[in-house]
Structures are given as C-alpha cells and as structure tokens.
Design goal:
This protein is an alpha+beta fold. It is 64% helix and 10% strand. Helix 5 runs antiparallel to helix 11.
C-alpha cells in the first residue's frame, strides 16, 4: 500500500518537473509597443531635433552648480511625506511577492493536543495526547502558482519603478520651485526698484510743479503710478511667500515662509545628450513600471487559464499518541501517512471562464496604457528639445530689448528734465522697460525649468552612477 502511494507521489513529482516550467514570458517592450500602436505610427530611430544622441548621463542635478538646491533636494528626499508613503508601498509589494512565491513551496505545520477518551467517567477518565507534523505541497503542474508568483514579482518591480519615478519627479518639482522662487525674488527686487523710481519721479514732478513747468495732470499721474507700483510690490511679496511655503511643505517643514531664496539665476548647463527613442523605453522609470504592469496582466492571464485545470496536492503526516495504556505497556504509538489529493473543477457557474475573460481584458487595457505612456514620453522629450532652442533664442531677444530699453529710458528721462517730452512719454518708456525686464526673468526661469523637464523626460537620474 505504501509502495503504491510512493509510486503515485513520484509520478506526480515527475510531472511537476516536466510541466512546472511551462510559464510563458511576455514579449520585449519594443515588440509590445510595435504591436499595439496603429500601423501608421512608427517610432523613429532618432528624435526630431538635431542634438547629440549619445549616452544619457546621470547626476544632472550637479550640472546646475547650485549647492543650496542640492541641500534642499537632500532634505526633500529625507523628509517628504508623500515619498515615504511611496516607499511603504514598495515594502508592501515586496511582501506580497514573497507571499505569492511561498505557494510554490511545501507547507509544514506542527500540531499537538490532548483529549478525554470517555468524558462520562468523571472519576477515572482516560486521557490521550499526541503531537503531529503535517506537510502539504500543491504540485504546480500547469504553472498556475508559478504564474501568480511571477505576476507578484512583476508587480513589485513596477512599484519599485513607480517609487524611482516619484523620487525623480519630486526632485524635479523641487528644482523648478526653487528656480521659480528665484524668479519671484528677482521680480520683487525689480518691484522695489520701480517703487523707488516712481517715488523719485513724484519728487521731480513736485519740483517742476512748484516752478510752474509741470502740466496739471503730471502730479496726479506720477502719484497714481507710484501707488500702482506699491500695490504691485505687495502682490509680488504675496507670491514670494506662497512659493516659499510650498517649498517648505515639500521639505517636510512647517510652512512659515522663513526659507530665503536668491535673486540670482544659475547658468543654464550646456546641452546634454538625449539618447535614442528606443532606449527611452528601458530608461524611464514610469515606462518601466507600465511595462511591468503589462507583464503582471500577462501572467495573470496564464494564472486564470490554469485555474480551470486539475490540481494535485501531496500530503504527509507523522507523530505519536500517548495514553495510560501505552505508558503501562511501555510501547509507543506512532502514527503517520502519505496522501495525494486531486481536485478537478467541473462546474463553477461560468466563474472560471469569466476570470479568463477578465484577465484578457485587463491585459489589453494595460498594454494600451503602456503604448499611450510611451507616446506621451516621446512627446515630452520632443517638446523639451524644441523649447531648448526656442527659449534660448527668446532670452537673447529679451536681453537685447532690455539693453535698448535702458538706453531709451535714459534719453527720455533727460528730455523730460529739459521739457522736450511730457511725463506720459517718460512713464510709457519706464513701463516698457520694467515689463521687458520682468519678461527676461520669466524667460530665464523657463529655460532652467525646461532643462529640468528634459532630464526628467529622458529618464536620467539626478544622482550619479544610476545608469547601467
């Protein structure tokens, strides 16, 4: 009898060795993308802009040569609460992968107990006790458990990639907020300068008015512009405190607006290599996460299909039972056994087939989302590359406009003092100069922010030595 059971078990083990590796693997990311996109959509070998397509470097944060920004990023990575929540999700996914993989291994348990053989005999009841070791193992003949474990591992890798993208996005958000704070601080300095200029202009008009060389509307007009400049300064101060508080929340600090920004922009680093579109699929963490979710759905489909097939489990147990009789006779009472359990689903009301259809639909959904994410990633790179050139040209034009505006204001101011132009002409010249200087600050911030966007779009890490 025992030999026949052993034969059945050995046969089952042989089958698991033959069929246990039958879990298929998903197609590479490029093949998935090519098969999902419309036939008319082709991914080019290079990006549209004529740029260096060399190896994408890591450590882009240091390229800005801003020690204060690097210190802020280090603080954000240490204290940001959203990032800590994302890190906890990685731990959860890792534990779930371990749980799913544990189903491939035998389950071993130890049990013990005692009971009364005849509960009606309250004077001399017969007691029996024992301890047992139980082992059970489901043979994964059709790859169902293996597919589930592989899907859980892929989900863990996707969550890991999500966390990496969250880190990079958070660093990019911090850098852009810091550059915006620099712009607003520079704008605030410009607003103070405007208040001083208009205050001096009021004094000049008052002097001219006393000697009868000012028009009747000049003094009210000068005072109106001074009040407007003072109002604009208050508005900029509000914006400055708002961006500081936003930064402090990112840092995990209380939003007290005590952080102090600088009004001096860092230089835009030199152009960077952008790699190839095909490399983007393997480099950007968010695309890696999307591709791993395709794998999760792929293995989920296999698991659902295998759930319709029979299941075989091996069981073994051993132990000993002690009672007063065995103690008197000084003999042991070992017990044990081997078993094979078979379960074949015959009818489940269509639930199993519905599970397969759900898994198929989920696979189609995540594959489409992956293709859309890839297109969006290509779009982000192309936009950032185009803006690299356009924003640089825009800044050069604005700088030329500032230089010419300063000269125009110098001439107009001199002409006003000798009465050759009226106050309105002077104010208009001053307003144009202030406006173009403000636009120049915005352009410098846009160039820095767009460079951050380019690094984020390319998938290069802000840390050194991250690329493989």
């Amino acid at each position: 009898m025992i030999r026949s059971k052993l034969l059945v078990i050995l046969t089952a083990v042989s089958l698991i060795l033959v069929f246990g590796c039958a879990v298929k693997q998903p197609s590479p990311s490029e093949e998935v993308l090519e098969s999902t996109l419309p036939e008319a959509t082709e991914v080019p070998e290079e990006f549209s802009e004529p740029v260096d397509t060399g190896y994408v470097d890591d450590g882009w944060l240091k390229n800005f040569n801003d020690n204060r920004l690097e210190a802020l990023v280090a603080e954000v990575l240490e204290n940001n609460q959203n990032l800590q929540a994302a890190a906890a999700q990685v731990d959860i996914a890792a534990a779930l992968a371990i749980q799913a993989g544990a189903a491939l291994k035998p389950t071993i348990g130890l049990g013990a107990g005692a009971r009364t053989a005849d509960a009606r005999d309250l004077v001399n009841p017969t007691q029996a006790s024992g301890a047992f070791l139980n082992v059970s193992w489901e043979l994964d003949m059709w790859g169902r458990i293996r597919a589930g474990a592989t899907a859980a591992e892929a989900a863990f890798r996707a969550t890991e990639a999500d966390f990496q993208f969250a880190r990079q996005s958070l660093v990019a958000q911090t850098a852009k907020a810091w550059f915006l704070a620099t712009q607003i601080k520079a704008q605030m300095d410009l607003s103070r300068e405007a208040v001083d200029i208009y205050a001096q202009l009021v004094e000049l008009v008052e002097t001219r008015d006393k000697i009868g060389k000012a028009a009747a509307q000049d003094l009210p007009l000068a005072r109106c512009n001074l009040a407007s400049a003072q109002s604009a300064l208050r508005q900029v101060r509000s914006s400055y405190q708002e961006i500081l508080r936003s930064l402090e929340v990112l840092l995990g600090r209380y939003p007290s607006a005590e952080l102090e920004a600088t009004s001096t922009f860092v230089a835009v680093p030199p152009p960077v290599p952008v790699g190839l579109p095909s490399e983007l699929l393997e480099r950007r963490p968010d695309l890696i996460a999307a591709e791993r979710r395709v794998a999760v759905a792929f293995f989920g489909t296999q698991e659902a299909r295998a759930a319709r097939l029979p299941r075989i489990s091996l069981t073994a147990s051993g132990g000993a039972v002690n009672s007063p009789l065995t103690d008197i006779l000084d003999v042991g009472n070992p017990v044990g056994g081997l078993g094979v359990d078979l379960f074949a689903p015959l009818y489940a009301g269509g639930a199993l087939q519905a599970g397969v259809e759900i898994a198929d639909a989920q696979q189609r959904a995540v594959t489409a989302l992956y293709a859309q994410a890839a297109l969006r990633a290509f779009q982000e790179v192309e936009i950032a590359l185009t803006n690299e050139t356009l924003f640089k040209e825009r800044e050069s034009y604005l700088q030329a406009a500032v230089n010419e505006g300063k000269e125009a204001y110098r001439i107009t101011e001199a002409q006003y003092k000798i009465g050759r132009v009226d106050l309105l002409s002077l104010l208009q010249t001053q307003a144009r100069l202030l406006s173009v200087r403000s636009s120049l600050f915005a352009a410098r911030n846009e160039r820095l922010s767009e460079r951050v966007n380019l690094h984020l779009a390319l998938g290069g890490s802000f840390e050194s030595g991250q690329s493989e």
